[in-house]
Write a structure and sequence with these properties.
This protein has helices at 4-22, 35-48, 59-71, 86-98, 117-129, 145-150, 155-164, 175-181, 183-191; strands spanning 29-34, 106-112, 137-140. By secondary structure, the protein is mainly alpha-helical. Strands 1-2-3 form a three-stranded parallel sheet. The longest helix is centred in the first third of the chain and has 19 residues, at 4-22. It is globular, with a radius of gyration of 20 Å.
């Protein structure tokens, strides 16, 4: 058994030096959530606030709402989440936890089954309104050939957002689709926005 002085001057001292040198985390945490779950979370909030059902809105109305809320200084998400059904509450609680994690420990927020521009802005809104101080990289994942084809109309807008925001990532968005279709076909489908 180690004596107290050995523990204090050995193992504990080593741990303190590592934390001072490298910080509390040695790796970044990536979050991956399906886009439908983000829609459910925002829908729970908009329904509770009497704004209507976000899930039933068309893409244009979703984008207008998301952009207006991103520009707004007021809080959007109530502190008491008891109004939200369990799946939506879980998503909102996840974002609340992300706000408590040091920025250095956060990697990318990957959006599975991305299909529309609102999927990307929804994550950005949830991050900001949950109190995440420094934004995470956002990586929309186009996981099927259909996802790539459906994304065609909003690709120019998405590429512009990603080019302007250093906090977003396009490279990883093709990974899952490439595994299913092959890298060359995935890249061709994505770049052929005609």
């Amino acid at each position: 058994m180690l004596a107290r002085s050995q523990l204090a001057d050995g193992t504990l001292l080593d741990l303190i030096r590592r934390v001072r040198s490298f910080g509390i985390s040695l790796t970044r945490l990536d979050i991956r959530q399906e886009s439908d779950r983000h829609t459910e979370a925002i829908d729970a909030v908009t329904t509770f606030l009497g704004l209507g059902s976000y899930a039933e809105w068309d893409e244009e109305k979703k984008l207008a709402f998301l952009e207006a809320e991103l520009a707004s200084k007021r809080p959007l998400i109530p502190a008491d989440l008891s109004f939200a059904p369990p799946p939506a509450k879980e998503v909102l609680e996840t974002f609340a936890v992300l706000a408590k994690i040091p920025h250095e420990a956060l990697g990318a927020h990957c959006i599975s089954m991305s299909r529309a521009a609102s999927d990307v802005l929804a994550v950005r809104l949830l991050l900001e309104k949950s109190g995440v101080k420094a934004p995470m990289r956002i990586a929309p994942l186009f996981e099927t050939r259909e996802d790539l084809q459906v994304s065609r109309p909003f690709r120019p807008l998405l590429c512009a957002w990603l080019a302007l925001a250093s906090t977003s990532s396009l490279r990883s968005s093709l990974t899952d689709c490439a595994q299913l279709l092959g890298t060359a076909l995935s890249l061709w489908l994505f770049s052929n926005a005609g």
